[in-house]
From TrEMBL:
Compositional bias ranges of the Low complexity kind: 8-33
Classification via PROSITE patterns: AA_TRANSFER_CLASS_5 (PS00595)
Function: Catalyzes the removal of elemental sulfur and selenium atoms from L-cysteine, L-cystine, L-selenocysteine, and L-selenocystine to produce L-alanine.
Name the UniProt record assigns to this protein: Cysteine desulfurase
Length: 458
């Protein structure tokens, strides 16, 4: 037990507990690009209780981390310890628990900010990444309708302005921009993809022009695993004075993300894909932009002065955190990023790239399989989406589930991309730091039996 500065005796914070990984996978080796060893992965897996479960009488092979990741004990314990010992409303009370809760809440913000190379006042807590992207889009809509004063005019859009996305976007990074275009009169344009679902910097240069005001795109595609040419797109956008909004949902959990080095204006990612809880997301924004962007969700906690005639808003990030904040979730997410840092993001990325190559090579040997996305030897995230000739993706998923293998099926919230590829749905297997080669091989062996099982032999 420890004595806090506020005078309350508290239990040790398990959020600070290091993962039970091998010594060579510690934070001190984070710069290493060598894949995690088999021993490392086994020790990591011991931190994830869900991975010991059985499904339909078979050991669980969890290959759906691209949708939501499992959580290690350090994360589960961090949230539980806070709720047991320090739970209170933050920024609202003068009592000891309120002080402890506020300190932990803001410490979590600082931890996550450091994780992405930002400053604490450039990190806004949201309910998820979708909420974060909507915050930017609807803030710009408010600015376009005269809210926010002179400082917000940089965000105002009107007829003749253009918003640029890509044809590969998740709906969360497409629909908000469709709505912004509809409410402001701006035009929505998209960077097209090829038959593999990928695009180049040259493709982006053909679309981004003098009328472009916003460029929003995914760092890593949740369908193809394609890694976008971020530097080139940012350069194109900033050359014409456009803002860059990065969907980092499939990058922040898996590879080192430095928003300042990438030079993006806004970035969003979710807690539940980053070993953290649901109900929390992160919006990064440049300090000067966040302080100029009008809020779109208003109420308590985000105001400085309220009269019956009007209100003044606090500076960022509080101006975007109306109402009761996700306190325990923020603390759990901070524990999650500490866990990732302890393992080493570079080692995680190398491990996932190795597994992706193994998946791609194996799938390519199975008759009737069409893989979407970059081919062998091209950088991609640790996921593979594919179509099985003659068998619907949902049937593929059910067959694999019967064998204890969890994958994702459907259009993965990317209908335009699937339409461009001539597909209604795909099956997606996604790996993470706790995925083993044996699980990948088990998955490949099962996929090889799908078409024979459903009578598709041609």
């Amino acid at each position: 037990m420890s004595q806090s500065a506020a005078g309350l005796t508290t239990a040790p914070n398990s959020a600070a507990t290091a993962p039970t990984i091998a010594p060579n996978a510690s934070a001190s080796s984070a710069a290493s690009t060598s894949p995690l060893t088999e021993q490392d992965i086994l020790r990591i897996r011991a931190d994830f209780p869900a991975l010991a479960e059985t499904v339909n009488g078979e050991p669980l092979a969890y290959l759906d981390s691209g949708a939501t990741a499992q959580r290690p004990l350090a994360v589960l314990d961090a949230e539980r310890e806070f709720l047991i010992h320090s739970n209170a409303a933050v920024h609202r009370g003068a009592h000891t628990l309120a002080g402890l809760a506020t300190e932990a809440y803001e410490d979590a913000r600082a931890t996550v900010a450091t994780f992405i190379g930002a400053q604490p006042d450039e990190v806004v807590w949201t309910s998820n990444a979708t909420d974060a992207l909507n915050l930017v889009a609807y803030g710009m809509a408010n600015a376009s309708h005269g809210r926010g004063g002179a400082s917000a005019r940089r965000f105002a859009l009107t007829e003749g302005d253009e918003i640029v996305v890509t044809e590969a976007e998740h709906h969360a990074n497409l629909v908000p921009w469709q709505e912004l275009a509809a409410t402001t009169g701006a035009s929505l344009r998209f960077i097209p993809v090829d038959d593999n679902g990928i695009y180049t910097a040259a493709d982006a240069a053909a679309i981004i022009g003098e009328k472009t005001r916003v460029v929003a795109f995914a760092h890593v595609s949740n369908v193809t695993g394609f890694v976008a040419p971020v530097a080139e797109i940012v350069e194109l956008a900033h050359a014409v004075g456009a803002l860059v909004v990065l969907d980092a949902c499939q990058s922040a959990p898996h590879r080192r993300l430095d928003v300042v080095a990438l030079d993006v204006d806004f970035a969003a990612f979710s807690g539940h894909k980053t070993l953290g809880p649901t109900g929390i997301g992160v919006l990064y924004g440049r300090r000067e932009l966040l302080n100029a962007l009008p809020p779109f969700r208003t109420g308590g906690s985000m105001i400085s002065t309220v009269t019956m005639e009007g209100s003044d808003f606090l500076p960022a990030p509080q101006r975007f955190e109306a109402g009761t904040q996700p306190v325990s979730q923020a603390i759990a997410l901070a524990a999650a990023v500490r866990y990732l840092d302890a393992v080493g993001l570079d080692r995680i990325e190398a491990h996932e790239e190795h597994l992706a190559e193994r998946m791609l090579a194996g799938l390519a040997q199975i008759p009737g399989i069409r893989i979407v996305g970059p081919g062998l030897g091209v950088p991609r995230a640790g996921l593979a989406s594919f179509d099985v000739a003659g068998v619907h993706a949902h049937d593929v998923g059910q067959y694999l589930d019967a064998l204890g293998i969890a994958v994702r099926v459907g259009h993965h919230c990317a209908q335009p991309l699937h339409r461009r590829l001539g597909l209604t749905a795909t099956t997606r297997a996604s790996a993470y730091l706790y995925t083993t080669e044996a699980e990948v091989d088990r998955f490949l062996a099962a996929v090889a039996q799908v078409r024979p099982y459903f009578g598709e032999t041609s």
